[in-house]
Each structure stands twice: as structure tokens, then as C-alpha cells.
Design brief:
With 434 residues, the protein is α+β, with helices and mostly antiparallel strands. Helix content is 62%, strand content 9%. It is built from 11 helices and 7 strands. The strands form 2 sheets. Strands 1-2-5-7-6 form a 5-stranded mixed sheet, with helices on one face. Strands 3-4 form a two-stranded antiparallel sheet. β1 (316-321), α10 (328-349) and β2 (354-361) form a beta-alpha-beta unit. α9 (301-310) runs parallel beside α10 (328-349). The longest helix has 52 residues, at 199-250. The chain is elongated. The protein starts with 24 loop residues before the first helix and ends with a strand. Residues 1-23 and 364-374 have low confidence and may be disordered.
């Protein structure tokens, strides 16, 4: 298949998969040593900004100073983001840039309403107690455990007191790295929650990418139609016009007398050619129209899929478990994705058979009553599997990249499992309703 086999639709290594970066306690200790001074500086900065801004809020300089402090918090947060990425191996997506403003008043207003900056202040304020907790876990508890064991041994205590102190020291030394790694996970969670984009900002970015993908797909489709019309249908119509012109000439009495042909033999041949050319032009137009808006989709995706799988180049088994009809836009994207995948299976995978599984998945809850699916969480999942060669990866062409862009237009995702040993499964997921 042309890029028929991709290892990972996002081109990365899933978290927790073999080969994923490890996060040992040693790196977390290095993070604590590097970030603790910054935590002290950050907490002092936040208290200073809030104190000065609140104290002078009723004056002309109070709000501008608070706005300046919020902008400065963004720069401090960038330093913490770099430390989190380098030492804790947590890639946090960069937050949205500060709002653009024309003029001092607009700048102050935009800074004061900058949610990202306020979240940064909250992060800087929470860092200090969290880092002090990490310092206690990393140094305080081990030192206290060792001191307890030494004190009990050297102080002539009862044997059970000495044993308890030693066991406590060993437990602290053994469990310390585990607790410290949990502390590091808490730090990563805090960074994700407060330093990255908010849920609304992520949604806006997703919609912007989807809009860009939809516009790019629409532009490519229009250009392809223009090329097909120019190189295919237009050339066929020109040839038809020439044939009809020759037919008109052949019907002329002067031409028939000069050539000595039978009265209707040559016109009959030219008319037959014109008819064949007309059929070819009509077939080409139908192909183009079907590529823009397939007639099979007029009755819905569930009726169109049997026709699509029936004319694939390899035997295809179809299984459908869909109770609700998806939105038309979702059906259209699903139809074209399945069509391209089956075409690539037939042409490039070397497969002898394939399967298409279509079902609805979503959030479910179990109880005394039957399972209830929440409409907002329901998704259309289509799995296209074949027994062809495997071992492909994203970026080796543009076939599946185009599918991923088409899916992004409806907030869908693409996943591929293609081991080098063979067989490939492509999983398409998109919301059932937009």
C-alpha cells in the first residue's frame, strides 16, 4: 500500500511503550536541585507582584505594574518549562502567546485579562511548597531515618527500639526513591495543568488545524478536478467536435462524389466514432462527479460501503454494527478514506484478502440497566485490515498523510499497526455527530 503501513499515526513513541524515555529518580533529584532556587525566586516574585499591584490598585500606576508583573511571569514560566522538558522528560505544549494590543491602555487591559499569565502566577506560587516537600522526601526523611538508627544503637536503648529504628531507616531508604518519583509525577501533572494551553485554547488550536486541513483538502480537490477536466474531458470533447465536423463534411455531396465512397458508409463510421467518444466523455464526467459527491452516499454510508467493498481489487469482508446514521460530513470523509485504503491495498500491499469493520464506540456505563451510550462521546470507528506486507512508517509518502488531514477536518484520528512481520490494520475514528 502506498504508505500503506505506518507504525504510528503521530510519528512518535507512545508513552510507556518499549523504547520510551525513562524517568529515573536521579533526574528528578537533579530537577529539584536546579528548580528549588527558582521556586524561591518565583514565590517571592508572585508575592511582590500581588502585594504591589494590590496595594497600588487604586492609583494610576497600580494596574500597569500588575500588568507588567503578569507579563514577567510568562518569562519565568518559560524557564520552568525548559527544566520540566529537559530533566523530567515532560513535553508540555507551549501556551498561547500574549494578546496583541495597540496602545498602552489596550496593553494593560490585555495583560490583566491574560489567563495564561494568571495560571503562570499560580504555578509559581504552588511550586515552593511542592519543592519543599520534595526536599523533605529526598533529604529530610533519609537523614532522619539514619539518625534514628544511630541514636537508638548508640543510646543503649532496648533491643526492640533499636530494631524498630533500623527497620524505619531501611524503609525510608527503600521507599524514598519511589516516593520521590511520585513527587516528580506530581510536578509533571502540575506543569501540564498550569503551564500548557487551557482546554479552550487546545480546542481552538485543534479547530484551526482542522480548518486549515479542510481548506487544503478542498483546494487540492478543486485543482484535481480542473486538471481532470482540462486533460481528460476537454480533450475528449475536442475530439468529438472534430469527429462531428468530419461527419458534416462527409455528408456533403461534393465530398462523396470526389471520394467515390458509398453514400452513407463514411458518415456511418464517423457517427459511430462520435457516439463512442460521447460515451467516453459521459463516463469521465460521471467519474469526476462521483469523486466530488458519490451518488452511492445519497442513501447513506451503510448502503454505500457494500458497493465500495464489492468492487475492490481483492476479496473484502464487511462487518457493520452501526445503529445511528452519522452526520453527512462524517459519512463523506469515512467513504473517501475507506475507498483510498482499499485502493492502496489492491495496488500496493500484495494482500490476498482484506476486511472492513465499522462500528460505533463511546463512553459507556454499566449497572442494573443495559449499557447506555452517551451521544456526545460516541465515535465511528472503521478498521481496515489486510494480510499484505508490513513495516511501513509515516512520512514515506503522502497517501496516509492526506487521510489524516482529511480526518482532521471532522476532528478524527488515524492509527496504524503495521509490524514488519506482515499484515496491517488502519483504524479511523471520528465523531458520530459533529
Amino acid at each position: 500500500m502506498t504508505e500503506h503501513h505506518l507504525r504510528d499515526a503521530d510519528g512518535g513513541t507512545p508513552a510507556g511503550a518499549p523504547g520510551a524515555p525513562r524517568r529515573p529518580a536521579l533526574r528528578a533529584a537533579g530537577y529539584l536541585a536546579a528548580a528549588l532556587p527558582l521556586s524561591l525566586l518565583g514565590a517571592a516574585y508572585v508575592l511582590l507582584v500581588l502585594y504591589v499591584g494590590g496595594l497600588l490598585a487604586l492609583t494610576l500606576v497600580g494596574l500597569p505594574l500588575l500588568a507588567l508583573g503578569l507579563r514577567g511571569a510568562r518569562h519565568l514560566v518559560r524557564v520552568h518549562l525548559r527544566l520540566v522538558r529537559v530533566l523530567l522528560d515532560e513535553v508540555v505544549e507551549s501556551p498561547a502567546p500574549p494578546p496583541a494590543a495597540d496602545g498602552t491602555i489596550a496593553w494593560v487591559r490585555g495583560s490583566l485579562s491574560d489567563v495564561t499569565a494568571w495560571r503562570g502566577l499560580l504555578y509559581l506560587l504552588l511550586r515552593l511548597p511542592l519543592d519543599l516537600l520534595g526536599l523533605v522526601v529526598a533529604l529530610g526523611l533519609p537523614l532522619f531515618g539514619v539518625w534514628s538508627a544511630v541514636w537508638a544503637s548508640a543510646g543503649g536503648q532496648e533491643w526492640w527500639v533499636v530494631a524498630a529504628a533500623v527497620l524505619f531507616a531501611l524503609a525510608v531508604l527503600v521507599l524514598g526513591p519511589v516516593v520521590f518519583r511520585a513527587w516528580a509525577r506530581l510536578h509533571r501533572s502540575l506543569a501540564r495543568a498550569l503551564l500548557g494551553p487551557s482546554a479552550s485554547q487546545l480546542r481552538v488550536r485543534t479547530l484551526e488545524r482542522a480548518r486549515g486541513a479542510a481548506l487544503a483538502e478542498s483546494d487540492r480537490g478543486l485543482r484535481q478536478v480542473e486538471r481532470d477536466l482540462h486533460d481528460g474531458t476537454q480533450a475528449q470533447l475536442v475530439a468529438l467536435a472534430m469527429t462531428l465536423s468530419l461527419t458534416a463534411d462527409a455528408l456533403s455531396d461534393d465530398v462523396r462524389e470526389a471520394t467515390g465512397d458509398a453514400p452513407w458508409e463514411r458518415p456511418r463510421t464517423l457517427v459511430a466514432r462520435a457516439r463512442a467518444q460521447t460515451d467516453d466523455a459521459i463516463a469521465e464526467l460521471r467519474r469526476l462527479i462521483d469523486g466530488i459527491s458519490p451518488a452511492a452516499l445519497d442513501r447513506g454510508l451503510l448502503d454505500a460501503l457494500p458497493q465500495l467493498t464489492g468492487r475492490a481489487g481483492v476479496p473484502v469482508s464487511l462487518r457493520v454494527d452501526v445503529e445511528q446514521q452519522p452526520d453527512p460530513a462524517v459519512e463523506r470523509v469515512a467513504y473517501f478514506c475507506v475507498a483510498e485504503l482499499l485502493t492502496n491495498v489492491a495496488k500496493h500491499s500484495g494482500a490476498t484478502r482484506a476486511s472492513v469493520d465499522v462500528r460505533v464506540v463511546g463512553e459507556e456505563r454499566r449497572g442494573k440497566k443495559p449499557r447506555i451510550r452517551k451521544p456526545k462521546g460516541m465515535k465511528l470507528r472503521i478498521t481496515v485490515h489486510d494480510d499484505g506486507v508490513g513495516g511501513a512508517g509515516l512520512g514515506r509518502g503522502s497517501g496516509l498523510s492526506g487521510l489524516r488531514e482529511r480526518l482532521a477536518a471532522v476532528d478524527g484520528t488515524l492509527g496504524v499497526d503495521s509490524p514488519a512481520s506482515g499484515t496491517t490494520s488502519v483504524v479511523l475514528e471520528m465523531p458520530l455527530h459533529l
